[in-house]
Amino acid sequence: EEQNVKEKGTIRLVAKVTGNPVPIVTWFRNNKTLLASPKQTQLFDGENIVLEIKEADSEEDAGDYKCVASNNVGTATHGSRVTVDVEKVSFTKLLQSNVEMKETETVTLECETSHTVSTKWRHNGVELSGMDHRELVQEGRSHRLIIKRATINDAGTYSCGVKDQLTSCTVVVHGMKPDFVRKLEDFEVKEQEVAILEVEISSETADVTWIKDGQPIEPVPGKLEVEKKGNVRKLFIRSTSVHDEG
Prior knowledge:
This protein has 1 helix and 23 strands. With 246 residues, it is mostly beta strands. It has 3 domains: 2-85, Immunoglobulins (Immunoglobulin-like, Sandwich), CATH 2.60.40; 91-174, Immunoglobulins (Immunoglobulin-like); 180-237, Immunoglobulins (Immunoglobulin-like, Sandwich). The longest helix is centred in the N-terminal third of the chain and has 4 residues, at 58-61. The model has no long low-confidence stretch (mean pLDDT 92). This is Ig-like domain-containing protein. Its main location: cytoplasm.
């Protein structure tokens, strides 16, 4: 659950809990116990839980909130991310304009904003979710994009934006000469069975050429099919016959 409030507005988080005996409720912000303050109100009537924070400030109040209800039987939690929308924000530290790296390396792109706000990262104009090998990390005003085990496909223009502000970076990924990690082995198969020839290479993006008796093999649907998955390359020979020996 996410909540966005205007600066100087009111944050209101609610939850419900039941338990016997009546649980003890504790609020956390960014995994630290939420300390009482004059602008904050915490209510719990045994079932309904309310946290209200007035005069919201992006530095003091934005973050990940968690409500923990516990008794001697167990614990229940409920969380919410709160962002505070400030009227004006700028980048106080820009992304490095150019970054060069090699395939399989890890690189971190980092920038900073004048306030604690949420940003959006894009690669060649497409918004990133942070759910793949490219991890998005925000800690206060710091915003980081971590690209793990980069491939050639990770090259391009990356940008971090908030409101009408944008900072960008060009990433160049140098390909590595592929090597065979696991080579072909001699293979025997009965007629009409499927023969699967398999190799593993050091690159996830490099292509291989399959050759039989010195001649490149062209895929034939239903007979000769190739597969490229991660670092593994496979050749499927279906309905084998003596003509497939080589």
